[in-house]
């Protein structure tokens, strides 16, 4: 039986790391304990184990999902900017990718590096500004792969693609469709091409249960951020789901869902979902010497969340 079964967390047990962060959407943890988070004041902020902070890189539009390469550089998606940036450890930055087949990337959401140093990229929509795709329920999100052959699209026609990650064996690539709020998975062939998508896990995390970021643990469970419910849950290998914690506003979620269905949703409706204690958590990362310290980013909080998990996380490529 999984050590996570039955695990719940009182909101009062959640602690905070960092200060003055602006839209710290994604978190990367280094083996030595240094944290990196995307930060709209630049590209990313480094938080040392002793609490010292430094924001690096020029200001880019909505720095979002990130990955770290083996040299310790960050690969960062600029969602509103439609580009992939490489942020070197000394603060230098460069545009790594801004088009595929001569066409703009669109709203780039997330980057993931696998054990073969291949870069997987999720694009929420080809539309910029990206909110128009949320209003119109547009299904033009896609997943791209960058390897020794260059950049190419490997899955298309997705609904507001969010984070993408490979499992421990790298047999499947998992991808979030933010709306309606479900997880898909694709078999991964040796050449990087993908099989047909299949849904994995529940149809819904509850009303307004839009999925955002996720991470695997060492048992193969998937920890998922429910951004509008201000929560976190776990999808088990058998597809069942359990809530770990949440801070929802039911009436606001009801109203937002209606507006989503009739095409009148506005960015303010997302902001109104922010809870009294937690505000729009988006991502999760495992760190610490035993990989059991969890860190979560958000769209609205000036700090990161942190708590202890009953299981270790799956090490990412830069940790191995």
From TrEMBL:
<dbReference type="GO" id="GO:0016787">
    <property type="term" value="F:hydrolase activity"/>
</dbReference>
<dbReference type="Pfam" id="PF08450">
    <property type="entry name" value="SGL"/>
</dbReference>
<dbReference type="InterPro" id="IPR011042">
    <property type="entry name" value="6-blade_b-propeller_TolB-like"/>
</dbReference>
<keyword id="KW-0378">Hydrolase</keyword>
<dbReference type="InterPro" id="IPR051262">
    <property type="entry name" value="SMP-30/CGR1_Lactonase"/>
</dbReference>
<feature type="domain" description="SMP-30/Gluconolactonase/LRE-like region">
    <location>
        <begin position="24"/>
        <end position="247"/>
    </location>
</feature>
<protein>
    <recommendedName>
        <fullName>SMP-30/Gluconolactonase/LRE-like region domain-containing protein</fullName>
    </recommendedName>
</protein>
<dbReference type="InterPro" id="IPR013658">
    <property type="entry name" value="SGL"/>
</dbReference>
């Amino acid at each position: 039986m999984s050590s996570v079964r039955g695990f719940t967390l009182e909101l009062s047990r959640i602690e905070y790391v960092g200060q003055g962060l602006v839209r710290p959407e994604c978190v990367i943890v280094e083996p030595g304990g240094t944290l990196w988070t995307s930060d709209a004041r630049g590209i990313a902020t480094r938080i040392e184990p002793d609490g010292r902070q430094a924001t690096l890189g020029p200001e880019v539009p909505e720095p979002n999902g990130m990955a770290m390469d083996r040299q310790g550089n960050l690969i960062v998606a600029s969602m509103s900017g439609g580009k992939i940036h490489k942020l070197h450890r000394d603060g230098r930055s460069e545009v790594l990718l801004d088009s595929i087949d001569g066409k703009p990337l669109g709203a780039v959401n997330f980057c993931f590096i696998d054990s073969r140093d291949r870069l997987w990229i999720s694009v929420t929509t080809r539309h910029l500004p990206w909110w128009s795709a949320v209003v119109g329920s547009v299904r033009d999100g896609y997943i791209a792969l960058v390897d020794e052959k260059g950049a190419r699209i490997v899955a298309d026609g997705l609904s507001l693609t969010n984070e993408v990650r490979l499992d421990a064996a790298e047999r499947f690539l998992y991808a979030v469709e933010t709306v309606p709020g479900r997880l898909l998975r694709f078999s991964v062939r040796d050449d990087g091409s993908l099989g047909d998508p299949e849904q994995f896990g529940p149809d819904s995390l509850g009303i307004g249960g839009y999925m955002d970021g996720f991470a695997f643990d060492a048992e193969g469970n998937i920890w998922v951020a429910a951004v509008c419910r201000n929560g976190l849950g776990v999808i088990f290998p058998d597809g069942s789901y359990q809530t770990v914690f949440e801070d929802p506003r039911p009436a606001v979620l009801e109203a937002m869902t209606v507006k989503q269905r009739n095409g009148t949703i506005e960015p303010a409706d997302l902001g109104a979902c922010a809870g009294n204690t937690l505000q729009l958590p988006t991502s999760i990362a495992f760190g610490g010497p035993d990989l059991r310290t969890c860190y979560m980013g958000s769209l609205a909080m000036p700090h990161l969340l942190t708590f202890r998990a009953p299981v270790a996380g799956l090490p990412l490529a830069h940790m191995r």
